[in-house]
Write a structure and sequence with these properties.
The protein is α/β, with parallel strands linked by helices and 408 residues long. It folds into three domains: 94 residues, Signal transduction histidine kinase, dimerisation/phosphotransfer (DHp) domain (Helix Hairpins); 156 residues, 2-Layer Sandwich (Heat Shock Protein 90); 135 residues, Response regulator (Rossmann fold), CATH 3.40.50. The protein contains 13 helices and 13 strands. The termini are far apart. It binds adenosine-5'-diphosphate.
């Protein structure tokens, strides 16, 4: 009897050990998968820069309406592909624990307006009434990760518009409880609604109400998963109420503290996102990138606005060119063989110091598009960053800060 007892105890211990090991293995496998997905999506973004960038340039010179329509299709398809890649990148970052939040003073009134503006055309074309119901007491300044919160609202609005037929209506609601310090938001639509049996499922990765959804409406089924995980990271949550054929209401609550209006940081770059018009800039810059097509693409944009440039294939090249010449700005790729952009920047900054040279603005050009990477670039001595794939406008908005506008 006693022997049997010992045997069972040891067998149980073995079993527990096996289970613990299996758990560790599964976790490692899951992290490896997430890391692989994150790397792959990063790799895919780079060639997309070449595709979207050159299509933009070619379309500018095209007058034939049929060809313009085709360029438009390439651009739209590229952008769709990119948003799928971004979703995969986000989800893998969250799942591998590499996503961090960046809470900062945020004007939610502006955030809602900016987000709605993105859908102006779509709403008009579908004749949808999209209105806001924002509580007057919603503070002007709240501390929240604005990029990620905007991503959640964007996803909810985008779904509401996608699944609401022409002539329907959508409302975006928000209120703030000053006692509990909880922000509540909701997006309500008069659209297709979701069947009861699917309600829980839609927050799971790749889940759509039924498989024909992808064919009819597009999408990856990742948006709500990412939104719910992001809110979870913010200690908030998201729920849904829906009736098939009548509409849906997605509502969320998230704890946030308020701040003083004076804490709001006005990003001049964002204010200046409008068309650049017939801007002529003056200057000589250095373009550092190991991919020739990227040098060419940036060069094509620069030349059009009167900016001349030298190119370097890696960090070593860049540092040596910098020793011999002076530049008004340097566009620095991050990942390059021989010497990466971060190291090259460090060396350039130390040459500047050693020889008391004027500080040259260095703009990181990176496929690591996440906002919190910005700090890493700033710490390395860079001044700004643009993410790949970039548009002509993004390049110019940055350049305008650093080069002289000789005529406009
Ligand atoms: P995607 O929209 O890319 O498919 P989401 O995770 O954002 O992925 O949404 C998952 C699914 O939830 C959608 O495919 C759809 O079936 C359902 N859904 C989401 N929002 C709505 C909505 N407002 N009305 C009806 N169905 C919705």
């Amino acid at each position: 009897m006693i022997n049997d007892g010992f045997k069972i105890r040891y067998e149980n211990l073995d079993l527990i050990k096996d289970l613990q090991q299996a758990n560790i293995d599964a976790q490692i496998a899951s992290e490896t998968k997430s890391e692989f997905l994150a790397n792959m999506s990063h790799e895919i973004r780079t060639p997309m820069t070449g595709i979207l960038g050159f299509v933009e340039q070619l379309a500018k010179k095209e007058n034939d309406p049929e060809r313009l329509r085709q360029f438009n299709i390439i651009t739209k398809s590229g952008q769709t592909l990119l948003s799928i890649i971004n979703d995969i990148l986000d989800l893998s970052k969250i799942e591998s624990g590499k996503m961090t939040l960046e809470p900062q003073p945020t004007d939610l009134h502006k955030l809602f307006d900016d987000t709605i503006t993105l859908f102006d055309e779509l709403i008009k074309s579908k004749n949808i009434d999209l209105h806001k119901e924002i509580d007057e007491k919603l503070p002007k300044c709240l501390i929240i990760d604005q990029l990620r919160f905007k991503q959640v609202i964007l996803n909810l609005l985008s779904n509401a518009i996608k699944f609401t037929p022409s002539g329907g209506s959508i409302s975006l609601q928000a209120s703030y409880d000053h006692t509990t310090q909880i922000l509540q938001c909701a997006v309500q639509d008069t659209g297709l609604g979701i069947g009861k049996e699917h309600l829980e499922k839609i927050f799971h990765a790749f889940a759509q109400e039924d498989t024909s959804t992808t064919r009819r409406y597009g999408g990856t089924g990742l948006g709500l998963t990412i939104s719910s995980k992001l809110l979870h990271m913010m200690k908030g949550q998201i729920h849904v109420q829906s009736t098939l054929g009548e509409g849906s209401r997605f509502y969320l609550d998230v704890p946030v503290v308020s701040c003083k209006e004076t804490d709001l940081f006005i990003d001049e770059n964002l204010l200046d996102e409008k068309r650049v018009g017939n801007l002529v800039l003056k200057g000589h810059v250095l373009v550092v990138d190991d991919q020739e097509f990227n040098q060419m693409l940036l060069g094509t944009v620069l030349k059009q606005y009167g900016v001349t440039y030298d190119s370097a294939n890696d960090g070593v090249d860049a540092v040596s060119l910098y020793r011999q010449n002076s530049y008004d700005a340097i566009f620095m790729d991050e990942n390059m063989p021989n010497m990466n952009g971060i190291e090259a920047t460090r060396q350039i900054r130390s040459i500047e110091e050693e020889h008391a040279r004027t500080r040259t603005p260095i703009i990181a050009v990176t496929a690591n598009a996440l906002s919190y990477d910005k700090q890493r670039f700033l710490d390395a001595g860079m001044d700004e960053y643009i993410s790949k794939p970039y548009t002509e406008e993004a390049v110019l908005n940055v350049l305008k800060h650093y080069l002289h506008n000789s005529k406009s």
